[in-house]
Specification:
364 residues; single chain; six-stranded mixed sheet; 12 helices; five-stranded antiparallel sheet; 40% helix
Length: 364
């Protein structure tokens, strides 16, 4: 098979010679031969499929490190590489939607229109809310914390020797924002609170301790969502239940990559391994921050993994659809977790958006 000069290979692969030199330096696309005297790079036609895949993946914006992984997988298992690309793009679309929400929010704030077009102001809506936790039937200590208020829902799941303190501190940091932070400052307030909690965990906890956190803070006609770890948020709207958070776990990353099914994940031996948490680490604490429009009639559920790993999705949907009040939903969901063996602490917070009546809430 004849060799191709870098120029000829660049034209055939639709990559520039400059890009080819960079990919050689990174080990992403190594020439078949480099002339020892001139330093000229030579390639062979068999390298074209990999090079063209690199070109396409660069066009969709995939990071170079990820491209190398996909290309290596492509050479041994092309269908699996296709699944990884699909999972990557699904994540890009999710993050793009989040950025679009942020842009809309900022435009509305700067133009003096805090409510989304055609959406009721939050001041015209009220929240009914409830929260509860239970130690479960196996654990000796309850390290879950749940909170529900007129503007804030929060659930945190602590772990390690100081887990109870970590989860409580995370929720307390957000409760302090409920009356003090509004409008365009809400996302910055949530991010700053998470940073403070993580810093406290780094400075004051034992090395194996930390917490997950999922919380919603209402502002205008939207809610700001902060999420890190594997606590979850669900939305019931129009009779349909959807999950609006993405687990930061090893098994979820395997599901995203197509190497594990959702059914297989429930029994995976590393299903509890977190990729992100407020554990004092600087690399693991980056939260997801999102904005969602609030619609009258919405019902929101925040919960720890002590609920959704025991209570199946059909039962969660049924309770959210049929419970008359948030307190009823919280009580029934915790009872179902205990009836399923209660192997872990369980925490729930539920809120309904309504257009009439005063906001009310209870702790179960």
């Amino acid at each position: 098979m004849g060799e191709l000069t870098i120029g000829a290979f660049a034209r055939a692969s639709r990559l520039s010679p400059k890009a080819l030199r960079l990919y050689d330096e990174l080990g992403l696309l190594t020439p078949a031969r480099v002339d020892g005297t001139t330093g000229y790079r030579y390639y062979v036609e068999a390298q074209l499929p990999r090079a063209r895949l690199v070109a396409w993946l660069r066009r969709v914006g995939m990071p170079l490190a990820r491209i190398g992984e996909v290309c290596d997988l492509y050479e041994t298992d092309p269908p699996a590489a296709g699944l990884v690309i699909g999972a990557y793009w699904a994540r890009v679309e999710t993050e793009t939607a989040a950025r679009r929400d942020l842009v809309t929010f900022l435009v509305d704030q700067l133009s003096g229109k805090p409510a989304g077009k055609g959406v009721e102001e939050m001041s015209d809506m009220r929240m009914r809310y409830a929260a509860g936790t239970d130690r479960g039937l196996v654990r000796s200590v309850n390290q879950d914390t749940a909170y529900a208020g007129a503007r804030l829902l929060a659930v945190a799941d602590g772990f390690g020797a100081d887990g109870a303190r970590a989860s409580g501190a995370a929720v307390d940091a957000l409760v302090a924002l409920e009356e003090s932070v509004r409008g365009a400052d809400v996302l910055n307030g949530l991010a700053d609170a998470v940073d403070r909690v993580n810093r406290v965990n780094r400075e004051g906890s034992s090395g194996d301790s930390g917490t997950t956190l999922t919380a919603m803070l209402w502002t205008g006609s939207r809610l700001a969502l902060v999420h890190v770890g594997d606590t979850r948020a669900y939305l019931l709207r129009g009779g349909e239940v959807s999950r609006i958070t993405h687990d930061h776990t090893l098994v979820q990353s395997m599901i995203d990559a197509g190497s594990l099914s959702a059914e297989e994940a429930t029994s995976h031996p590393q299903r509890a391994l977190l990729l992100r948490a407020l554990d004092g680490g600087t690399d693991h604490a980056r939260p997801d921050l999102r904005l969602h429009d609030v619609v009258p009639g919405d019902r929101y559920l925040l919960c720890s993994d002590g609920l959704f790993t025991v209570v199946g999705p059909d039962d969660i949907r049924r309770v959210l659809r049929t419970a008359a009040e948030p307190a009823d939903a919280v009580s029934e969901l915790i009872a179902l977790a205990l009836a399923g063996g209660g192997p872990d602490n369980v925490a729930c917070a539920v809120a309904d958006t309504v257009m009439d009546g005063a906001a009310d809430g209870v702790t179960v």
